[in-house]
Amino acid sequence: MKKITIGVLVVALIIGGLYYLFFRSTPVANAPLETSEQTETNESNGTSTAQTPAEEPEAENPSETRIGSSVDNRDITAYHYGTGTQELLFVGGIHGGYSANTTLVAYELMDYLEENPEKIPEGYRVTVIPVLNPDGLFKITGSEGRFTPPTTPLSLAATIPGRFNAHDVDLNRNFDCEWQAKGTWQTRTVSGGTAVFSEPEAQAVRDYVASHDIAGAVVWYSAAGGVFASTCKNGISDDTQALTNAYAKASGYRAYQDFDFYEITGDMVNWFAKQDIPAISVLLSSHTAVEWEKNRAGIDAFLNYFAE
After folding, report:
1. What's the rounded Cα separation, in Å, for the pair 67 and 180?
2. pTM of the full predicted structure?
3. Quick check: 88 and 209 in contact, CB under 8 A?
4. Is residue 17 part of a domain?
5. CA dist 211 → 28, 67, 90, 233, 267 (Å)
6. Domain ranges, residue 71
7. Which tens digit of pLDDT belongs to each residue from 193-250?
8. Does some domain include residue 19?
C-alpha cells in the first residue's frame, strides 16, 4: 500500500511539473507584451509610462537652393558643392533652348564635382546654376532641366525663340552694365527689358550675389569658341585676366580681351565686373557640342587658381 501511495505521489509531482512548465511559460492570449517603450519609469510618481520615440525632423538638403523662379514660375535652382565661405559660381542656360548645350556642360560639371570633391579648393564652395532661363529651355527641349539631345538636332533658326524668356527678353541684356531697353544681338534688335533687372531670372542672380561672397564666376554661352574677359568700362582686373588666360590655355579655346563682334549692353558677366567679381564668359564652339573635356580642363585650371 505504501509503495502504491509513493508511486501515485511521484506521478502527481511529474504531472504538476509539466503543467507548470507548459502553461506558466506560454504567454496568455491577448496579453500585452512588455516593450522597451514601457520600461521607462516616471520618476515623479514611480509609475511606468509608455514613451513614444521623438520623430526625427526631416533633414534639409544642403546641396541645393531655390534662388528664384522664371516668368512662367519655373524654379531656378543653385546646386552647392563644398563647405567654404567664399563661392565660385558657374552659370549655364542663360539663353535657354538656343544655347541648350551650355546647360548640359553645367550638369557635367555637377557630376564631376560629385565624383571629385577634392577638386574644390579649400575654403571655397562651388555653386552651379545650370539653367537660368528655364522657360526658354522648355520652349525648345520640353524640359526644365537636364535633357537628352535629339538624335537629329533642330535647325539653329528653330531654336531662336528659346533664347528669350517668357517676356521675350534677352536675359543677357537685362543686367546693370550699360543697360539699354533695346539691345543688339548680331544684326537684330532685342529687348533688354523695361528696366534694369526687370526680369525675375536676372533678379534671382542679383539677389543671390548680393547675399553671398562670390570670389569668381564662369558663365557659358554659345557659339564662338573662346574665353572672354569681363569689364564694365572699369578695366580688366588682374584676377580676371589671369582666369581668362588659365581657362583658355587649359581648354584650348582662344582668349579674348573683350567681345567686339557687335555691341553688347546689359551683359551679365560685365555686371559681375562692375561688382568687382572676377568673371569670364566661355563660349562653346557650336550650339550643340558640349565639349566637356575641353571645359573640364578649363574648370580645373579655374579652380586651381583659387587653390594656390
Report:
1. 25
2. 0.80
3. no
4. no
5. 65, 11, 16, 24, 20
6. 64-307
7. 999 999 999 999 999 999 999 999 999 999 999 999 999 998 999 999 999 999 999 9
8. no
